[in-house]
Amino acid sequence: MFFDMQYMILVMVPTLVLAGLASLLVKVTFNRYAKVRCYSGLTGAQAAERMLRSNGIFDVTVEETSGFLSDHYDPSKKVLRLSPDVYGSNSLAAVGIACHEAGHAMQHASQYVPLVLRTALVPVTNISSMFAFYVVAAGFMFRPLLYVGCALFAVAFLFSIVTLPVEWDASARAKQHLVSAGIVSPGQEADAGRVLNAAFLTYVAGAVGSLLTLLYYLMRSGIIGGRSRD
Fold it and tell me: What are the start-end ranges of the H helices in 74-143?
């Protein structure tokens, strides 16, 4: 009743295809520019630290973490964690990703509104992700819960939408700093940008998948389309 063929065709297949293509593009692009040395010779960790310090941020530490492209900024601890392929590498791909994460630290320092909103949505989104499917399933027996379930999916979609400007802005800050700080040459700027643009597409794919899921259950509930479908 819940995971029917219509769900597979309208939601699962498109979402998996988009996510797979985006992930493949990131890996191909990263591997391509992981072989190109950046103009300055700085490693990802050094580039991130230069970006932070030159923008007056001295309370954020840069650490190495495990995993492939597991790079992230932890605002609760003010720690920028870089994967091994980024932390110690002086490639265009490495410095681009490192400076992108430093861009998140800059957003945090300046209280960038979309980042503040996304951070506030994290606990609500975590709850909605855990319970949305179960609430919708129960909603087919007790209709009011169907609307609650759709609201939970709407929260997840809102989170994915708010994430887009956060990620785009962090990349924009990174691109600007890479050249102005002399980390990459003007001729390398476009190549470093390609790595960041490929990574951004993974968030676009996630937003599209979240939208498809929300629309599907709005249709099943009858909120759109005129009547509920059992």
Answer: 84-87, 92-109, 113-139
State how far the Cα of 106 lies from the Cα of 112, in Å rounded to an integer: 8
The tokens describing 119, both together, are 């951070």
Question: Cα 14 from chain centroid?
Answer: 19
- The string of pLDDT tens digits covering residues 113-161 is 999 999 999 999 999 989 988 898 888 788 888 889 899 999 999 999 9
Q: Which pTM was predicted?
A: 0.89
pLDDT of residue 229: 53
Instruction: Provide the residue type at 29 as one letter.
Output: T
Instruction: Give the other-Cβ count within 10 Å of 172's Cβ.
Output: 15
Torsional class of 225: left (φ above 0), alpha (ψ -120 to 50), beta (otherwise): left
Distance between alpha carbon 43 and the CA centroid of its chain, in Å? 23
Contact 1, 141 (CB under 8 A): no
DSSP conformation letters of 171-197: HHHHHHHHHHTTSS-GGGHHHHHHHHH
Amino acid identity, residue 136? V
Give CA–CA dist 230/227, Å, rounded: 10
Q: Domain spans of the chain?
A: 5-221
Q: How far apart are CA 146 and CA 91, in angstroms?
A: 50
Query: Annotated catalytic, 64?
Result: no
Place of tokens 């209709």: 143
From the candidates 49, 63, 64, 101, give the one annotated as an active-site residue: 101
